[in-house]
Every structure is written in structure tokens, then in C-alpha cells.
Amino acid sequence: MSNKQADGIHASNQDFRKYEGVTKDHNYQLVERDGIEVFDDEYEIQTCDMRRLFEGGDTGRQRFSRQLGTALEDIGFAVLTGHDVNTQLYAKAESAVESLFTETTFEERMAYKARRFGSVNQGYFPMKETTIIHPDLVEGWVFCRRAFDLDGDLSYTERDFWPKPGFEPVFREVVRAHEKLILPIMQSILSYLDCDPHLYDEKLIKTNFGFRLNYYPPISEEDGESGAGRMLGHEDVDLFTILPAQSVDGLQVYNQSNGKWIRLNPEPGAIILNTGDYMQRITNDRLPSTTHRVSKPSGKSFHNKPRITISMAVYVWEDEILEVLPSLGQPKYEPISAIAFHTGITSKYYGDDYAVDGD
């Protein structure tokens, strides 16, 4: 563990304020610390039924848009049900994630060690190396659009991105299912904000994304006593993130209105949706990029069980310009290229030389 990572166990987000691309005045510890944290057991993050959107006609679409927008404006998180994604895909994918991390050798995985391509650090992240500022107790792997055989590219080669055959087709099914949700979600958000619901349609058809597979191994006694968290407190750098719920808890959401943390663990089959920095920027701070982290499970019996998550962060391509949406008042932020915005923020995780000038 580096000295910087060791310091990160006791750090707060304000130690890295200079990297932020949107206003984040609240203060929180990157890792849950016994005796310091306060939890909110009463607040309930809104569940939004997408069947209203798909089956309810104009009235249903309006009700869903209002419900989703209100939830996201309040806390930046919502739980989606009725989304029409076959939940068997999630069970199949979860099994494949475990195989990816446990049935390949460390050397095989390290051949794909993460590096920046465009805006996004893509590839394999070894245990405790998700960032340079905290020793997260997780192995991760980020696959962006180019890692999938989605668009009929004749030059696509599976081996360039995947250590063994068989993984890509499993995860491609999940990606395709989630892609069908991108426009309905974005259109609903824009409608709630009184913007043209189709304003982002062209930007989000075949757009880039970060499909992140996280494998949190059982917690050893040494790691349990180290003070390290499973994933440091952070905000996502995207428009929104699609995260299928799973069985081992640990996700905590920060409620800025009262400074308390909410333990979020919806029923398997639901989707957790949260807005990120791109969204906060273009909505002039109206929809927040909300802080969340992954801590140890509340029940010690789950410490010996791996935690597996499959998230999809929705981006726009690097050359797109992020600017405040019309009708949202005097812009607080100047237009900026997605690559400059994205890499400027994430250089706090990967080093100052990660940032790219978008001019």
C-alpha cells in the first residue's frame, strides 16, 4: 500500500476538491469509520415502476417522468422496477464475473491492466489498485463499447479485450438490454426538466459507456482490521449509472440534506439508477451527482462471501460538448469537452498526468 493510499483511509473528499468539475461543498469521509458515521434508517429512496413508461400511454409517461425526476432531484438515486430486463441475464452474468476473476490467473488478467483510452481508464484493476488514493478491497474490470462486438466492426477481435473466449457474449447480452433503457431514461429526465425529450437522442444512440465488473472477495481478518473500505466514497463521472441490485449488501448513499448515510439494498432484479457529474453539469446543479461508497456487509456472516456487481456508466463520446441545458436558468458552468471534463475529474484517482486538454 502506498503512503497516499494509507492516508486515504482517513481522508475526506474535500482533500481532493481541486479536481472537481461541479460544485460539491459537502464533506464526508472516504471510508466508513466506526463511531463517526450517522445513518438514516428512515429515508426511503423512491422506487419507480417503468411499466408506467412502457405501457401507460401519455399519462403513464408523464407520471413516470415526474416520479423519476423528483427522486433524482432529491437525492440523485432511484430504484427501477418493471424495466423488462430478463433478470436471468443478471444471474448468468454474475456467475461469469466470478469465473472471470477466479478462473483466470493473475498474469492473464494483468495482460489487460487498465490504461486510458479516450476519456476512460479501461481494463483490469488489481486488488487495492482501483485508485491511487485508497486501497479499495475490490478487483475491477472496465469494458467500454469497443470491447464488445456490437456494431458490426469487421476489425473487432475478442482476444484484444477478453482473456478467454465465452465471456464477451454473456456480458454483451446485458449491455444490449441496458442500451434499450438509455433513451427512455434520458427522455424522461429531460421531460421532467421541461426540455425537448429528444435533445440527447443522437448523442446517446450507440454512445460510449463504462461496463464495470467488480469482484469483492471475502474479507480477510487483516483487511477487515486495516480500516480500508470495499470502495471509497465517490461520485460517478457520467450522465447516469445502471446498476442491477444484488444479494450482498454494502452500498451506502450520502444524503446531503442531513449529512447521514443510507444503506441501499433493494430486492434482486431491481435496478439502481444514479446520476453523475455529467448530469449535474448539464442540469446546472439541479440533479446532483450523489456520493456513494461500498462498505463491509452489515452482517458478519457475509464477510466470507464475495460481493459481485455489474454496473453500466452511460457517457457521451469524448468530442461532445457538455453545456447547461436550455431553460435551466443562468448557466453556472461554461461549455466544456467531455474528454477534458472527464479526465480532469478522474485524474484524482490516476494522477495529474491523466488529465487531457480538450481544446
CATH architecture: Sandwich
**How widely separated are the two ends?**
36 Å
- SS summary, helix count: 10
Q: Taking Cα atoms only, what radius of gyration do you get, to the nearest Å?
A: 19 Å
- CATH-level-4 superfamily name: B-lactam Antibiotic, Isopenicillin N Synthase, Chain
If you average the pLDDT, what whole number results? 93
As a percent range, the share of helical residues equals 25-40%
Biggest beta sheet attributes: 9 strands, mixed
Task: Tell me how many strands there are.
Answer: 15
Number of domains: 1
Instruction: Decide which structural class fits the backbone.
Output: alpha+beta
Give the ordered list of helices and strands: HEHHEHHEEEHHEHEEEEEHEEEEH
CATH class: Mainly Beta
Strand order of the largest sheet: 1-2-11-8-13-6-5-4-3
CATH topology: Jelly Rolls
The shape is globular
Strand content: 15-25%
Catalogue the unreliable spans. Answer: none
